[in-house]
Amino acid sequence: xxxxxxxxxxxxxxxxxxxxxxxxxxxxxxxxxxxxxxxxxxxxxxxxxxxxxxxxxxxxxxxxxxxxxxxxxxxxxxxxxxxxxxxxxxxxxxxxxxxxxxxxxxxxxxxxxxxxxxxxxxxxxxxxxxxxxxxxxxxxxxxxxxxxxxxxxxxxxxxxxxxxxxxxxxxxxxxxxxxxxxxxxxxxxxxxxx
Length: 194
Prior knowledge:
Helix 1 (3-23) runs antiparallel to helix 2 and helix 3 (71-94) runs antiparallel to helix 4. It is globular and about 55 Å long. It has helices spanning 3-23, 40-65, 71-94, 102-124, 133-150, 163-185, 187-192, and strands at 30-33, 36-39. It has a two-stranded antiparallel ribbon with strand order 1-2. Helices cover 73% and strands 4% of the residues. The protein is mainly α.
């Protein structure tokens, strides 16, 4: 396994740590940071999520720089993103005091499952499709929204502007748009499936 794929696997391995921090009833107290009041565990969980999310950029950077782009990486990288984002969104639905409506989470996760299913069909036809720019924008919009929600709208808590909510809506819009685009560009597989 090459370096970029190892970095991708590290993103997957950070998911259980994130879940433990966020879901086990630790009482580490509360903190106020830049106008945002939040439990310390939400701050620690946000840091783990952000570190895991940055590995998405790092593995892609090294894969391109060292010419180590592989079919395994093309498949594993978006899968790691989907696992991380899905886990974080499901946790957000459960958290008190955080705005993450289940219907938005269902739309986002449903798109991820649908695209993964199409990727499997494409793989069965011998095609491996790397993420396009719209998919990358979608992923970063989701990461920004989730980070803002986990950090209780930090920085923007000082002004009457709910950046975290706007970011979540933007993430949902890009999720729908990129899913539509992905299916439109790969509809030939659905037409040829039996």
